[in-house]
Design a protein that fits this description.
The protein folds into two domains: about 140 residues, S-adenosyl-l-methionine hydroxide adenosyltransferase, N-terminal (Rossmann fold); about 100 residues, Beta Barrel (Elongation Factor Tu (Ef-tu), domain 3). The chain contains six helices and 15 strands. About 35% of the residues are buried. The strands form two sheets. Strands 8, 9, 10, 11, 12, 13, 14 and 15 form an eight-stranded antiparallel beta sheet that branches. A seven-stranded mixed beta sheet has the order 2-1-3-5-4-6-7. It has about 260 residues and is of the alpha+beta class.
Length: about 260
């Protein structure tokens, strides 16, 4: 059975995902689909990369993942990459460079879909590619390997002696704000020294172990490292993004408490 996932910013009201899935099901009715998320913020590659990175290693080998963020209707170019013995189909927009998991060596292809073998409707060209990658990968016969993929120099925090400048890269359903500050960066800069975390004009002086840490009461502003080891800003029992007005790309700073 073929398995194809969708990670997009298309929302739940548009037709793109349904049209692509219907096209694939006509060719292979046994295909299974998983919507990782179709509710990502519009054009937000950082959220897409974080979301896919968090669950990529949960899927079986040969799963095909489609990322439709920063989808360009006029684009005739797709990027196909092999990661963890799975397949990723996306656009040459820097997404591959932002994933925690990197493509296998020499396993990245560029595919021009304006060739006669593909359907005339551009949206269905992508569906054609997904179906081929999920069944026999014959579409790779029309692609060429490359090392020239777009780089993205965003997503990493700025570090200095006694200082980390990060940003919010993802906000979840509960209003928690995930930053691009990793536990590794944090421990390297601060070790066992005291620190201050600045988020939206608020200061946090320590990192909790859990959301429901006994030292915190409802309404308390807390910081913790989530299961992806990213620093997260949260309010116990409430939404940090709403109450602090934290948004994607807002600055979160950690500095040594001198």
């Amino acid at each position: 059975m073929s398995l194809i996932t969708f990670t997009t910013d298309w929302g739940s009201n548009d037709f793109e995902a349904a049209a692509m899935k219907g096209f694939i099901l006509k060719k292979n009715p046994a295909t299974a689909f998983v919507d990782i998320s179709n509710q990502l913020p519009s054009f937000d590659l950082m959220s897409a990369a974080y979301t896919l990175s968090r669950c990529l290693d949960s899927f079986p080998e040969q799963t095909v993942h489609y990322v439709g963020v920063e989808y360009r209707a006029e684009s005739d170019t797709l990027v196909i990459a092999k990661i963890l013995n799975q397949w990723l189909v996306c656009y040459n927009n820097g997404l591959l460079d932002m994933l925690d998991q990197k493509p296998d060596e020499n396993e990245v292809w560029v595919l021009k879909t304006n060739q006669s073998v593909f359907p005339s409707r551009k949206l269905l060209r992508t569906a054609f590619v997904l179906d081929s990658m999920a069944t026999n990968q014959t579409v790779l016969e029309f692609a060429f390997k490359t090392k020239e993929i777009k780089k993205q120099f965003v997503g990493l925090p700025i570090t200095d002696k006694g200082l980390i400048k990060g940003v919010v890269i993802f906000t979840d359903h509960f209003g928690n704000a995930v930053t691009n500050i990793s536990r590794e960066h944090f421990d390297t800069i601060f070790g066992h020294n005291k620190f201050k975390i600045y988020a939206s004009n608020h200061v946090i002086n320590f990192v909790n172990d859990y959301y429901n840490d006994e030292t915190s009461e409802d309404g308390n502003l807390i910081a913790l490292f989530n299961d992806s080891n990213r620093l997260e800003i949260s309010i116990k029992g409430a939404s940090a993004t709403q109450l602090l007005n934290l948004k994607l790309n807002d600055r979160v700073i950690v500095e040594l408490d001198k």
